[in-house]
Amino acid sequence: MKSITALLLVALSTGPVLGESIAPARFTASGHVTDTLGTVKQRVQKKAAVLLDVREKAEWDDGHLQQAHLVPLSVIKAGRLTATMKKQLPKDKPVYVHCASGGRVLIVSELLRPQGYDIRPLRAGYGQLLKAGFRKAMQK
After folding, report:
1. Which of 1-15, 23-37, 60-74, 89-103 has the lowest mean pLDDT?
2. Confidence (pLDDT) at 21
3. Would you identify the CATH topology of the domain 25-131?
C-alpha cells in the first residue's frame, strides 16, 4: 500500500493527473497568452510545458532563464531548425515563448502555430520574468 501511495504522489507532482488536460490558450487583443506567470512557471517546472527563448545568441549569452531553451527568431524565420531545436519544440504540450520585451514572440507564433505547435507568446520579457521569480541560469 505504501508503494502505491508513493507512486501516486510522484505522479501528481510530476504532471497533470490522468485525464486532466491543459486548457486551450486564451489570448489578449495583441496576441499574447493570458496565462499568469505563476501558471507558466508551474507548468514549466512540472514539465507540462516548455519555455522557449527566441532572443538571439548574444542576448542569451548575456543571461538567460534556467529552464529555457534557445531557438532564435532568426533561425525560425530562415527555416533552419536543427534536430536538437526540433526536439525542444514538442507538439504535445504548450510552448511558452519569451523574448526581451514581448514583440518577437508574436512573429514566432505566426510562424510556428500553423505547423501544429501550441505556441503561447508571453507579454513579459526576460527582465520581467526574472522579477517574477524565474531563475537565471548560472553563467559558465
Report:
1. 1-15
2. 76
3. Oxidized Rhodanese; domain 1 (3.40.250)
